[in-house]
Amino acid sequence: MAEIERLTITLPSEMATIVKSAVEGGDYASSSEVVREALRDWKMKRALQLQELASLQADINKGLTDLADGRVKDFDANRIVERGKKLLASRSPSV
Description:
The protein is mostly helical and 95 residues long. The protein is 68% helix and 0% strand.
């Protein structure tokens, strides 16, 4: 089992009420369980955010490399719209 460390936290009244209600309602045995689950959820959400950030950074770096190597086209909004319409048409069921 993991080593346990005691911490004291301060919550706004609204959050404290939510924690107490979860315990009183029988969803959790203690306030500590509520906080531990919230931290597990935060940890997972944070890991996903970091993965998304790394992916975006990789895309930005690829774009900057393409730009530096001259692999770019002039921006043409009409070409992009037409390509989008074709993609959408190929995905939509025929009526």
